[in-house]
């Protein structure tokens, strides 16, 4: 479904991504883990067209999207929930969700809203509340719900567990699995390696701009090297 082929990405003179290749197949949950500053967010931003590669290519659903504009990439079925959520704080919950459907025909919106409210009953309760007054966990649910409104085939999530209490992290991860079972392929960036590996079909470990290890979620969760470096021994 998604093929990233040997991409190199720079911030000015800083070589942030050094020849990364990765693949996501339809139906999978794939996770990208690694320390702070390893380049995880940069990889997602590059896939969604917010940053450009210097060399290398990105293919999504059989089409080259290396130079495609971000909104066109969303239209093709690839949505990105950025780190820090970036919801519209002054708008209500429902208005935020409707914004997520801007690439869809307006007739579709009601049906998508229904689905998001089934997945996140908390958002239904609070649909008229201004998003800036939601709790951190609710804002994360809203950010994910908004991305789902574009009916993505592939959903990229950047650290959905960030800043959330353990019980909410569990909820978010359960919802990620539910979305996946309902047919959405997932590429998940996480600091919380343990949780991410526990739900991932496959995983890549990023170290200072390169992939150091890859394997199934289970293989990596059981690897001594990964345990020492990312899972607290
Ligand atoms: P974290 O888990 O802390 O969010 P990350 O793995 O997502 O980290 P990135 O945010 O992708 O890491 O950053 C990769 C590297 O690129 C870091 O060294 C970072 O300082 C650098 N970087 C990121 N954004 C910029 C920018 N706009 N300008 C210059 N350097 C940047």
UniProtKB/TrEMBL annotation:
One of the GO biological process terms: L-amino acid transport
Entry keyword set: Amino-acid transport, ATP-binding, Nucleotide-binding, Transport
GO molecular function, one term: branched-chain amino acid transmembrane transporter activity
Domain ABC transporter: 2-233
Gene3D superfamilies cross-referenced by the UniProt entry: P-loop containing nucleotide triphosphate hydrolases
InterPro entries: AAA+_ATPase, ABC_branched_ATPase_LivF/BraG, ABC_transporter-like_ATP-bd, ABC_transporter-like_CS, BCAA_Transport_ATP-bd_LivF, P-loop_NTPase
A Pfam family assignment: ABC_tran
Keyword Nucleotide-binding (UniProt): yes
Membership in a protein family: Belongs to the ABC transporter superfamily.
Name used for this protein in its record: ABC transporter domain-containing protein
């Amino acid at each position: 479904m998604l093929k990233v082929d040997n991409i190199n990405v720079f911030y000015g003179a800083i070589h942030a991504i050094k020849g990364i290749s990765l693949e996501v197949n339809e139906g999978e949950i794939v996770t990208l883990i690694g320390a702070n500053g390893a380049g995880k967010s940069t990889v997602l931003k590059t896939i969604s067209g917010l940053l450009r590669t210097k060399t290398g290519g990105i293919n999504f659903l059989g089409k080259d999207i290396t130079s495609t504009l971000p909104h066109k990439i969303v239209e093709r079925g690839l949505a990105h929930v950025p780190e820090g959520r970036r919801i519209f704080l002054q708008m209500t919950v429902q208005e935020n969700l409707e914004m997520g459907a801007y690439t869809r025909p307006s007739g579709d919106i009601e049906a998508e809203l229904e689905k998001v409210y089934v997945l996140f009953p908390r958002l239904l309760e609070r649909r008229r509340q201004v998003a800036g007054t939601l709790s951190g966990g609710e804002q994360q649910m809203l950010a994910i719900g908004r991305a789902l409104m574009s009916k993505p085939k592939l959903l990229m999530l950047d650290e959905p567990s960030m800043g959330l209490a353990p019980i909410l992290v569990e909820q978010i991860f359960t919802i990620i699995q539910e979305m996946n079972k309902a047919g959405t392929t997932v590429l998940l960036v996480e600091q919380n390696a343990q949780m991410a590996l526990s739900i991932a079909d496959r995983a890549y470990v990023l170290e200072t701009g390169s992939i150091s290890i890859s394997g199934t979620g289970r293989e990596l969760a059981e690897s001594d090297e990964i345990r020492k470096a990312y899972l607290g021994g």
